[in-house]
Design a protein that fits this description.
- By secondary structure, this protein is an alpha/beta fold.
- It has one domain: Vaccinia Virus protein VP39 (Rossmann fold), CATH 3.40.50.150.
- The strands form two sheets. Strands 5-4-3-6-7-9-8 form a seven-stranded mixed β-sheet, with helices on both faces. Strands 1-2 form a two-stranded antiparallel ribbon.
- The protein starts with a strand and ends with a strand.
């Protein structure tokens, strides 16, 4: 385990101290901005390292090593988008992240944080369904919408061989069944590192059923 003032990096999160310092700096920015624009629920801040940073970071090992463009939808406070961009700096330096957030105040936070943390990030203030296709190799979203809706977003913005990575809670099996009524896809799931009842879903080949 690697210790940091705010928490512990689990063994599977093999990152440098510089990366941990940037993750810590992101949390400091969230705490600074949160009273003004409510980026995250105030009650989640005392456990933000586990609930937000580690919960976001667990998506990164599922990124294809050849990925160059990734898009995160409903980025909010930067979980998972900014966390993934921080991890990519050393592990996937060619990766560029696009963060999509329709709330202008949250988008302003994302832009400021990305600039202060020196990240390869573009912030778009719009809705996923009206944006031109982003041609992303990876699409992510956390606590944004049901899987059936996320499939439509992913199908619009992924490259033909791209992957969508979505963390889901206890109802993941019901969401999969609902999504399969309208969409075809190949899916793999692994247990969440932060929620024993949750799963991280990785979808490929998403197309209308």
């Amino acid at each position: 385990m690697t210790h940091l003032a705010r928490g512990i990096a689990p063994d599977w999160l093999d990152v440098s101290r510089e990366t941990l310092v940037k993750l810590d700096a992101l949390l400091a920015l969230v705490e600074k901005w949160n009273p003004a624009i409510n980026l995250v629920a105030p009650g989640s801040l005392p456990d933000a390292w586990q609930r937000h940073v580690i919960d976001s970071a667990q998506l990164f090992p599922l990124f294809p090593p050849q990925a160059r463009e990734a898009a995160d939808f409903g980025s909010g406070a930067g979980f998972p988008g900014l966390v993934l961009a921080i991890l990519a700096q050393s592990a996937l330096p060619q990766l560029h992240m696009t963060l999509v957030e329709s709330d202008k105040r949250k988008a302003t936070f994302l832009s400021q944080a990305a600039r202060q943390l020196d990240l390869s990030v573009t912030v778009l203030t719009d809705r996923a369904e009206v944006l031109p296709p982003l041609k992303a190799d990876v699409v992510t979203a956390r606590a944004l919408a049901p899987l059936i809706t996320l499939c439509a977003i992913a199908a619009r913005h992924l490259t033909a061989d791209g992957v969508a990575i979505f963390p889901k809670g206890t109802q993941f099996d019901k969401e999969l069944a609902e999504a399969a009524s309208e969409w075809q896809f190949q899916v793999q799931h692994r247990q969440s590192q932060t929620d024993p009842a949750g799963r991280i879903l990785t979808l490929k080949g998403i197309q209308h059923a």
